[in-house]
Amino acid sequence: MLEQVISNKDRAGILVQALPYIQEFNKKTIVVKYGGNAMLNEELKQAVIEDVILMSCVGIRTVLVHGGGPEIEAMLKKTGKESRFINGLRHTDQETMDIVQMVLCGKVNKDIVALIQKNGGRAIGLCGIDGGIFKALRLKNAEDLGLVGEIDSVDVSIIDPILDSKIIPVISSVAYGIDEDEGKSLNINADIAAAKIAAALGAEKLVLMTDVCGILRDINDENSLIKSVSRRQLDDLKKEGIITKGMIPKTACCEIAIDSGVKKAHIIDGRLPHAILIELFTDEGIATMINRD
Amino acid sequence: MLEQVISNKDRAGILVQALPYIQEFNKKTIVVKYGGNAMLNEELKQAVIEDVILMSCVGIRTVLVHGGGPEIEAMLKKTGKESRFINGLRHTDQETMDIVQMVLCGKVNKDIVALIQKNGGRAIGLCGIDGGIFKALRLKNAEDLGLVGEIDSVDVSIIDPILDSKIIPVISSVAYGIDEDEGKSLNINADIAAAKIAAALGAEKLVLMTDVCGILRDINDENSLIKSVSRRQLDDLKKEGIITKGMIPKTACCEIAIDSGVKKAHIIDGRLPHAILIELFTDEGIATMINRD
Amino acid sequence: MLEQVISNKDRAGILVQALPYIQEFNKKTIVVKYGGNAMLNEELKQAVIEDVILMSCVGIRTVLVHGGGPEIEAMLKKTGKESRFINGLRHTDQETMDIVQMVLCGKVNKDIVALIQKNGGRAIGLCGIDGGIFKALRLKNAEDLGLVGEIDSVDVSIIDPILDSKIIPVISSVAYGIDEDEGKSLNINADIAAAKIAAALGAEKLVLMTDVCGILRDINDENSLIKSVSRRQLDDLKKEGIITKGMIPKTACCEIAIDSGVKKAHIIDGRLPHAILIELFTDEGIATMINRD
Amino acid sequence: MLEQVISNKDRAGILVQALPYIQEFNKKTIVVKYGGNAMLNEELKQAVIEDVILMSCVGIRTVLVHGGGPEIEAMLKKTGKESRFINGLRHTDQETMDIVQMVLCGKVNKDIVALIQKNGGRAIGLCGIDGGIFKALRLKNAEDLGLVGEIDSVDVSIIDPILDSKIIPVISSVAYGIDEDEGKSLNINADIAAAKIAAALGAEKLVLMTDVCGILRDINDENSLIKSVSRRQLDDLKKEGIITKGMIPKTACCEIAIDSGVKKAHIIDGRLPHAILIELFTDEGIATMINRD
Amino acid sequence: MLEQVISNKDRAGILVQALPYIQEFNKKTIVVKYGGNAMLNEELKQAVIEDVILMSCVGIRTVLVHGGGPEIEAMLKKTGKESRFINGLRHTDQETMDIVQMVLCGKVNKDIVALIQKNGGRAIGLCGIDGGIFKALRLKNAEDLGLVGEIDSVDVSIIDPILDSKIIPVISSVAYGIDEDEGKSLNINADIAAAKIAAALGAEKLVLMTDVCGILRDINDENSLIKSVSRRQLDDLKKEGIITKGMIPKTACCEIAIDSGVKKAHIIDGRLPHAILIELFTDEGIATMINRD
Amino acid sequence: MLEQVISNKDRAGILVQALPYIQEFNKKTIVVKYGGNAMLNEELKQAVIEDVILMSCVGIRTVLVHGGGPEIEAMLKKTGKESRFINGLRHTDQETMDIVQMVLCGKVNKDIVALIQKNGGRAIGLCGIDGGIFKALRLKNAEDLGLVGEIDSVDVSIIDPILDSKIIPVISSVAYGIDEDEGKSLNINADIAAAKIAAALGAEKLVLMTDVCGILRDINDENSLIKSVSRRQLDDLKKEGIITKGMIPKTACCEIAIDSGVKKAHIIDGRLPHAILIELFTDEGIATMINRD
């Protein structure tokens, strides 16, 4: 499995190097938004699962939040559901929402739970409906997108005892609708769900898995990775055009988390196996870390 | 809502009549297998939800176990999945199992949870995969039915703290496969799942919702309902041909529960609104109750 | 027992109608001042006992406070104790106080406890001396009434664990004297004792049992019952002469409770069987409820 | 207060001599049957109260059980109640029982509680009815004595948390009747009540306060006090005629306690001030101690 | 052992006189600085040990802090270590510090623990290094005294659970060095260590054992003992020249404690056997007590 | 620090390889006997400290037991103490025992505690006297060796809460003498102390650090290391002359531990840095592991 022959002394050295990080994060909460390629590729998936189990093992209160765009796509196609698009955004009608809920809460979620348990961890699969974790109002847009919600409140009272029992909660981005949508399911953005739950849990870190290296000063040069940036510097980076396109909503999520008290947010490259572990437990990080100031 | 005008005194009288039952069942565990018409008809569904919330409110540790045949059927049809039948039994291949899991864990389960919360209760939706509640081996039959399991072990360690918090666990009949099916999902019988979890929780009662009145001495005469029968008398009733056909697996479930320590099992008629409440909280039961001896 | 033949469906409906109230009052504290006819008539007494047991059963932290004028009267007569009256008020000398204490703490109190246990509940009988629940100073009046006290402090530290154990504390209106009456027993007003203990427990409700319907707009017309009134409106009702005579001290008690944080106070008609239950658990109340504003 | 001028060094010496006893009895339960002259004489009463408060202070789980013959006598006389005697034993009819209950639970009990609190201790007054501490059947004798009971069961579940809170439970010898006397109060023997509660609490010691020195080898010579005797030797002492008359039921109580697991029983002379303290905390005991063997 | 023959009644009287003090100090924390002659004389040592065990027994959270000058002296001499003096103060080089640490933490400390256990108490011996109880910076003086520290922070998180378990912590005056002395041991003043730990524990009292009577108005007249003085009056006493020489650092310690919230500080004469007990548990104190105001 | 340049992927791989061991040992107790070269060499010492902190961090209840022969030797020499030898064994007179206690409990013990805290861990230094952890009788030999004890009882009641708080107890091999040596300190064998405390704690593992590779089949060939052997096979190895000399008492210790319920005992080579970590957390062990069977 290892690429090199590594001496016992070096093996021990690597474990010892991880020690200060293990000490630092002990009993702290880290919320991982799991997504992108790392959900599709089997080897990457296995590595993510190993990472979160290790985190849980060394005493980190670990929460996994996930969406599941591609699997929803596939199921919609399979059922022959035609989608209506409004300004390029899919309209989520009741039938679509049913598919979203089934795929996220019934398939993706439980498969992750099964994989964690297959690897020796313990997990429970939940969604925002359970215990009213996420209550949402319908997203108010110019154009009505249907059953799409924005989170109104987060209730982590059922998550805390799960974390106390050293079980990993795996949470789907489906919310319980309130007000005029009382009792309905609403589709919510998984990145924001992760940021909001990190905030509600007073998390130490939010880790967003993406399919890019992090924030690059020069988008064409992976060596230009910005390893550490303060919350305040993000605005400059936007003005300078360094944070653009898909990176904008990712950093927006990090801002939500940090502005609500989360200490650090990491935008990591989910295409690298064990990216979480390397970012958290080794001296040289491999992602962009956003600090409070 | 009430059919008659009922005096305040009579209202109070009915509450007071319920008192000894409330006292008796306080802090006891009752597992309800929810199924049949009561899952399809909106009025019946509402009544079941009200019943379990009331049970939870008066201090009964209430667990809901459900399957969902008709909704699986509908989804299979929708996705155009052709089923292979073996001796009249559907073969559950991986694709079918994925649909089963999605519908049960993602749709039926979460919809029940949402409905409980809409009515003021608190619930968490789980399946046998979560925390390894149900571990199953593949069912060994003459003919291979595919991903169909029989329960090997039940782990209620995550359910107990949920019940302690007065939250209603709602559990789908999907199991975590072990041995040669390690990590796979297996389809299990919901009645047996309910019986097994009742046993593991040391439940006071197992309540099986069916679409019949209970055990009838004369199948054509609803007035011939056997209201109470001992575990030992069941064999005689089978020999006498009184327990036949669909009632055989139902009573078999009750036997499993009672032989594992559950005090009483009730076969109730889910077609009557509030059948659970009437059976549990009024002097005249309306179902068949099976006692330990 | 019921006056009408009531269908099972209606029975269930009545239980379900009680559900939102049961949910609302769960783990809340309700203090009932028990007195008047409901203490003398055996049928009414039985109904009150059933009501408080039911309250306790559905998770209400239920406290019963009682006085016992008629029984004291009878015992004084029996022992041939001549009373001295001052401006129409009885002077409580040491000998009278001994009788008061014996009757309230030794007879009325323990008989209520026995009756609760006979009906399947659990209760403990206490008075203000026990654990220093009520400490009182001698009432300073123009005329000295003897060993009559006004409550100086309330200590509920021994009541909270009793309520946590789901046991009903039954408390007599006798206080522990302090300052110049250190260690002596003092007679206190039971209505005020109930109001003060409700305040000290942060109760949801104070329920005062009386021998009238509640506050009537027209004292001769029971249909003129004021079902709900705010704390602020009471003054107007007094000015208008609607609250008069015996109702004045009753509403004064309610004001004490509400001004100290109790959410609602109910003046109910103890002459109706199950008045407490009907007021608390049905849609149509039958008493006067005083709200905070 | 002290009879002699005692040097500080000697004062300290006396405290230090008490140390091993304090250590030995820490967290142990000691049940004191309070009765006789020590209940009538004010100075003795004060000394008993100081003793039990000191016991409680140094960590002894202290329980006080009392009867109250003379005060009952006085009240019966006061109310002009004529007693019927059967073979010299008073018949306890309902009216008499009411007086017994009032005097014991309402007067004697609460006065002891008040006195403990006046001296800086904390106490709660209970009787056998509260929480069903003593359940009793009617005593079956040749001649019916009326509402006189013998203890059928003891439930200390409400006493343990009181002791955990370092509060002194003071318990009257009135029981809750069961079976044909369900719900009625029954008069029980206070010595036996103390012995039974000591057994139920797994007490270290039962201390019976009497009006004699203890067991005297020569009833006319106080110097013949038997300071220590084993359970087995009691029979010999009875045969030898050393244990006679009033000492017979006292030793019988001790036997009940010891045979049910209480380690030691002490028959002490309540006429000496601080007899309990001297017996428990000084090297030279002043009473008869009965050991298990 | 006692100097006089003392009657049982007087023995009991002395115990009862101690009662209000026992009640007052129950669950309070008292820190005793143990030192001087009371550490050298075997009879005095035994008396101190008995005093602290008795304190612990009656529910006082008792902490013992000690230094050990004479024993360090002896060991330095034994090892032939020549000391360098700076302005009359010994320079603590590493070799000297090693001896200090060995003697205090290894000998004096563990011998006290052994003696407590020999007398039936329970104790744990700790020093400022354990759990980082005392963190110290090197004392900044004109002249460098070597490894001598002043306390920078006190962490009592490991002491609280020990006290909760009714075990006596015995603490040596050796600190864990921080900053430039990170990880080194530093010698600290035991009186100040006691004052600081009393402050950190929110103690009721600091008791400093000395070899003098307390503060004397006339240093040559033991009858001029000032039994009680307020924190504010100390300044006057210093100006008046009543507090001089060795008493200055002792009162300074008391000031530290009282200014940090300790209620009272006692300067007691360790040459009197049981001085602690007499000061704490009898009406006439024998030391100087400094009050907050 | 690492000998090679190791890729991030391999670093992660090594952490992941440790995962199953971390999972396996979570909340298990491992007792490490620290001794030999690993106590003398600074680099080895640092590595041991890092190992035990890492163990503690990943949830292992880690206990360190130590002796300290060489440092005792040095101190005896320094104080000029002449030793008397009996059959080649040193006689431990009181003066020698004082030195032993000072060096072990005051110097070696506290230095280890300081080093753990310097590296970010939390530790408390104790010896067998504290809380009576080790009670010992004088070793009965043909020749009297003086104050040398053999362990009579082990009391871990003060160690359990320390482990619960994730603090590392560091324990010196000095015992509290009982019977004729009541209250004296006795010198005990540190290996046996470790074995006995492992047994008393129900430890998963005892790890004995030695200055050899483990059990070698050929004492001259390090490649002949026996990596795993059952308790039963040890006798054969002794008969075959493979276990000889210094290895005999080491294996005897392991036998004590295993026969008292410890699952596994490891004889590891303390001369290799991080030997503990490599033995516990990597696939290839580097020591001799003794299994229960």
What's the helix and strand layout?
Six copies of one chain form a homohexamer.
Chain A: H1 8-25, E1 29-34, H2 42-57, E2 61-66, H3 69-78, E3 85-86, E4 89-90, H4 94-118, E5 123-127, E6 134-138, E7 149-154, H5 159-164, E8 168-172, E9 174-177, E10 185-187, H6 190-200, E11 205-210, E12 228-230, H7 233-239, H8 247-259, E13 264-269, H9 275-281, E14 288-291
Parallel strand pairs in A: 1-2, 1-11, 2-8, 5-8, 6-9, 11-13, 12-14
Antiparallel strand pairs in A: 3-4, 6-7, 9-10, 13-14
Report on this model:
- The structure is a homohexamer of 293-residue chains.
- Chain A has 293 residues and is α/β, with parallel strands linked by helices.
- Chain A has a single domain (28-291), classed as Carbamate kinase, CATH 3.40.1160.
- Chain A has 9 helices and 14 strands.
- The first copy, chain A, has helices at residues 8-25, 42-57, 69-78, 94-118, 159-164, 190-200, 233-239, 247-259, 275-281, and strands at 29-34, 61-66, 85-86, 89-90, 123-127, 134-138, 149-154, 168-172, 174-177, 185-187, 205-210, 228-230, 264-269, 288-291.
- In chain A, the strands form 3 sheets. An 8-stranded mixed beta sheet of chain A has the order 5-8-2-1-11-13-14-12, with helices on both faces.
- In chain A, strand 9 (174-177) and strand 10 (185-187) form a beta hairpin.
- In chain A, helix 3 (69-78) crosses helix 4 and helix 6 (190-200) runs parallel beside helix 8 (247-259).
- The longest helix of chain A is centred in the middle third of the chain and has 25 residues, at 94-118.
- Chain A starts with 7 loop residues before the first helix and ends with a strand.
- The mean pLDDT of chain A is 92.
- Chains in contact: A-B, A-F, B-C, C-D, D-E, E-F.
- The C-D interface holds C 75, 78-80, 98, 101-107, 109-110, 113-115, 117-118, 122-127, 129-132, 158, 161-162, 165, 167, 174, 176, 182-185 and D 75, 78-80, 98, 101-107, 109-110, 113-115, 117-118, 122-127, 129-132, 158, 161-162, 165, 167, 174, 176, 182-185.
